[in-house]
From TrEMBL:
Protein name: Phosphoinositide phospholipase C
Gene Ontology terms describing biological process: lipid catabolic process; phosphatidylinositol-mediated signaling; release of sequestered calcium ion into cytosol; response to stress
GO terms under cellular component: plasma membrane
Organism, scientific name: Lupinus albus
Domain of life: Eukaryota
Membrane topology listed for this record: Peripheral membrane protein
Reactions that this protein is recorded to catalyse: a 1,2-diacyl-sn-glycero-3-phospho-(1D-myo-inositol-4,5-bisphosphate) + H2O = 1D-myo-inositol 1,4,5-trisphosphate + a 1,2-diacyl-sn-glycerol + H(+)
Localization terms from the record: Cell membrane
Cofactor list: Ca(2+)
Leading EC class: hydrolase
Length: 583
């Protein structure tokens, strides 16, 4: 057992023993139950996999393969040390990587949550950062399937740039962004990439864009057979295809000076580095008067009223590119959410307007999203590229919950967690109750009180890896870290909760052995949140790792749970040993 020394002052030092990772008591008990003479044979390991890990299809060959992978410990079976090593290994993850894409991908696009970016070209804040193809590439490599580009005339009005209009962001050429999408669209997933265009172009530049898009993507580009489809095609039918979504063209309007309604930079500066905790969705009290649009929606040029468009100057070749038409009918929110039986479309709402609409029109939103696509985007005051709680969109069936992917924090962790599901392909099938109607044509009511469907029991045993991934003074200058774990659920309002373990002082290998239970009314929308923090009595607690896991894909049993940085990057060594049980 080695020791670690911390300097308290120039003449005083503190020494701490560094223990080796040791199996918690329950793990030792399970080993004793499924072993004989301190050795777990292939048949005994198979029984453990069946009864504890709930791997009902596990075979003797599967058990032997695990033993063979650890045969430098013992050739005939597992001793306690190798059994513990197996449980903490990357072959024992909470979501099975080999599961791959397993949802039915033959349904219309409106039946899926889709991994969606907002202002995908920005490298930083919304007001003054650089525009680049790099964040687009990063998003595609992560599996994002919807890329948003704001297209404007360049300075000389003879070409097209991508930038956040009416701000100080530096532009990037559209052709560069299109090239990056073509090269990396299917790095992480073969399912379709949707490019949403926010168009601020003259008809001649629209024609130029049409030519660029056609030449760049060629046969990859999906060309709709009709301008007003009655149903969207399926992800399966659109594999390796690029889809264009925007409003039908209208006459170009010169840009006006932007009027920002506020700045969230001061608020975010006072929050913890990993982002503030989510407000409860149980007591939303936002005024909703006369179904009026807020200023932000009035300024949303992407979805301006189609009925007022003048088409005599538009570029027909540009219009023919559009596979998913965006737009708002005349009138207020009630008119926007009306379902046309003869055609489908995309509607965009700001996060604020969705929250307002959800108070009185929740079921109308659900009904709209059964056939049509709803895109939700961050409010304009999120200058620092922060995000919002995505569950408000998902629980109402919104397919495109658009996020600033270049940021970080708790909302983005939820987004990453949701799209770990279904093999990380960027499309997650919505729960049946969000896409089906009842015998009397009724739809799911997001505000209804639901019965508990299942209870998730979570045991937090221990953690390891910080000693290898962090400097020994990273968390505390004078002693080893004092870790605690927060575990909870993000989901519908009645399922939202966070709990925490006790704090283990001065230990790089904290062992908690604590059990938490989470009754779930909508497990199909529940995300398991896991965070580790280091207690600091004098300052804010330090961040020690996080992950978010889709509850409906969790494997029962004792699992090794890798943790990620606040930016969503996987640590090399940091993991928790946890157990998941459903009843």
């Amino acid at each position: 057992m080695s020791k670690q020394t911390y300097s308290v002052c120039f003449c005083c030092r503190r020494r701490f023993k560094l223990a080796l990772a040791e199996a918690p008591p329950e793990i030792k008990t399970l080993f004793d139950t499924y072993s004989e003479n301190d050795l777990m044979s292939p048949s005994q390991l198979q029984r453990f996999l069946f009864h504890v890990q709930k791997q009902e299809k596990a075979t003797i060959e599967d058990a032997q393969a695990i033993i063979d992978s650890l045969k430098h410990f013992h050739r005939k079976g597992l001793n306690l040390e190798s059994f513990f090593k197996y449980l903490f290994s990357d072959t024992n993850l909470p979501i099975l990587p080999s599961l791959g894409v397993h949802h039915d991908m033959t349904l219309p696009l409106s039946h899926y949550f889709i991994y969606t970016g907002h202002n995908s070209y920005l490298t930083g804040n919304q007001l003054s950062s650089d525009c680049s193809d790099v964040p687009i590439i990063n998003a595609l490599k992560r599996g994002v399937r919807v890329i948003e580009l704001d297209i404007w005339p360049n300075a000389s009005k003879d070409n097209v740039d991508v930038l956040h209009g009416r701000t100080f962001t530096t532009p990037v050429e559209l052709i560069r962004c299109l090239g990056a999408i073509k090269e990396h669209a299917f790095d992480a997933s073969e399912y379709p990439v949707v490019i949403t265009l926010e168009d601020h172009l003259t008809p001649d530049l629209q024609a130029k864009v049409a030519e660029m898009v056609a030449q760049t993507f060629g046969d990859m580009l999906f060309s709709p057979s009709t301008e007003s489809p009655k149903e969207f095609p399926s992800p399966e039918s659109l594999k390796n295809r690029i889809i264009i979504s925007t409003k039908p063209p209208k006459e170009y309007l010169e840009a006006k000076e932007i009027k920002e309604k506020g700045d969230d930079s001061q608020a975010s500066g006072n929050e913890e580095a990993w982002g503030k905790e989510f407000p409860s969705m149980k007591h939303v009290t936002i005024d909703f008067k006369d179904n009026k649009m807020d200023e932000e929606d009035l300024n949303d040029e992407e979805d301006s009223d189609e009925s007022d468009k003048s088409h005599h100057n538009e570029a027909p070749e540009y219009r023919s590119l559009i596979a998913i038409h965006a737009g708002k009918p005349k009138g207020g929110i009630t008119e926007w959410l009306k379902v046309d039986p003869d055609k489908v479309r995309r509607l965009s709402l700001s996060e604020q307007h969705l929250e307002k609409a959800a108070i009185t029109l929740g079921k109308d939103i659900v009904r709209f999203t059964q056939r049509n696509i709803l895109r939700v985007y961050p409010k304009s005051t999120r200058i620092t590229s922060s995000n919002y709680n995505p569950l408000i969109g998902w629980m109402h069936g919104a397919q495109m919950v658009a996020f600033n992917m270049q940021g970080y924090g708790r909302p983005l962790w939820l987004m990453h967690g949701m799209f770990k599901a279904n093999g990380g392909c960027g499309y997650v099938k919505k729960p049946d109750y969000l896409v089906k109607t009842g015998p009397n044509n009724e739809v799911f009511d997001p505000k209804a009180k639901l019965p508990v469907k299942t209870t998730l029991k979570v045991t937090v045993y221990m953690g390891e890896g910080w000693y290898y991934d962090f400097k020994h003074t990273h968390f505390d200058q004078y002693s080893p870290p004092d870790f605690y774990t927060r575990v909870g659920i993000a989901g519908v309002a009645d399922d939202n909760v966070m709990k925490k373990t006790k704090t283990i002082e001065d230990n790089w290998l904290p062992t908690w052995n604590e059990v938490f239970e989470f009754p779930l009314t909508a497990p199909e929308l529940a995300l398991l949140r896991i965070e580790v923090h280091e207690y600091d009595i004098s300052e804010k607690d330090d961040f020690g790792g996080q992950t978010v896991l889709p509850v409906w894909e969790l494997r029962s049993g004792i699992r090794a749970v890798p943790l990620y940085s606040h930016k969503g990057e996987k640590y090399n060594s940091v993991k928790l040993l946890m157990r998941f049980e459903f009843y």
